[in-house]
Amino acid sequence: MRQIFGYIGAALALILVVIIALYYLSPKQTKALTFDRVDFAELPGWVDSQDINGGFKAFLKTCDSLLKKADGARLQGAQIGGTAADWKPVCNAANAINRLSMVEVRTFYEANFKAFEVSLNGNHEGLFTGYFEPLLKGSFKKSDRFQHAIYSLPKDLVSVDLGRFRPDLKGERIAGKIQNNRLIPYEDRAAIDTGALEQKADVLLWVDSPIDVFFLHIQGSGRVEMPDGTLQGVGYAGQNGHVYRAIGRDLIDMGEIERENISMQSIRSWLEKNTDSAQALMQKNRSYIFFRLLDGTDGPFGSAGVGLTAGHSLAIDLRHLPMHAPVWLSASYPAANGNQNVQMDRLMVAQDTGGAIRGEIRGDVFWGFGDEAAAIAGKMQNTGRYWILLPNLLADKLIAAK
User: Fold this and answer.
1) The pTM is what?
2) Of 323, 368, 238, 234, the residue nearest 315 (C-alpha)
3) How much is the pLDDT for 401?
4) Distance (Å, rounded) from C-alpha 121 to C-alpha 101?
5) How far is residue 284's CA from residue 190's CA, in Å, rounded to a whole number?
6) Is pLDDT above 60 for 21?
7) What's the fold here for domain 31-133+300-402?
């Protein structure tokens, strides 16, 4: 057994050297963000926001997780997140608030945090999209109707958090499997669709639509309506290590959908109308997601390990922002019942991440479950900007380091 682990360690060390070399030699290296201190009054809508309490409730969930961590535990993501010890005093102060009101919440943040405007080379704007919990139809038993699998985490999948080896690689992960004492890429979507996971992963549920499975992978969690009408939640458990590919871009390049009309809804419509070509197109996205069954009804869990709050949980790129941090977001989203955009200035909390969330100023808003959430999330591709809120002691360290 010790010899086996030695081989695995050697294989991981070898692949790590290659990844680090590619990281530093690649022309696509991530650029450093600028964090400029601003007064809370400068945040768009801060004084007038009517739903600031929703963001505070999301922060209380994140505090439940942070208070359980060892003081020296570093937050996932960018190093400006510090350690759990940097956050515990503000979490204790948040839990001490007895009567929740918008005035009290604003006072709490203004007294315990400092706000920083995020920019890249003087540019403050980035892309903000949306995600939601889709509804699928399924069963625990395979049948003529339910033939498409939702898989659990494979037994032979190896996931590596590169940030544990090098602090400057925080937020970078790779995954694969061990073969002949080497870490190699895991099976991609096409291989898995043709049976590559037999004897390697358990089937959690069988559903009636391969297109529904594909979009479940994109969203990362969902609910499955069982034959008796009950709902079974499924949540993200892992990923096969292949880079996410947006098939909407392929449809644009193919001339099938105009760029201005691309959305989850238009992509789904194309797949349903072109069943002969749908599987091949979906397989261009080699990334594949594995799931676990969820108990209870507290919504799905994000990468931060806490239940997500509709409209106030944000998926981020961990290379640039830390998990658990409150974020003030100023952007817009498409109305569920039309094409007009609705302005949103609200308090969010970084509680999730995803393969498609890549970029210096980038975020994915969680909209919850149901038709309205799907309508908004499926069309949201809007520009916006954000400000990160850091506890005073941590913020002072950031200011002093400049």
Assistant:
1) 0.84
2) 323
3) 84
4) 38
5) 8
6) no
7) Barwin-like endoglucanases (2.40.40)
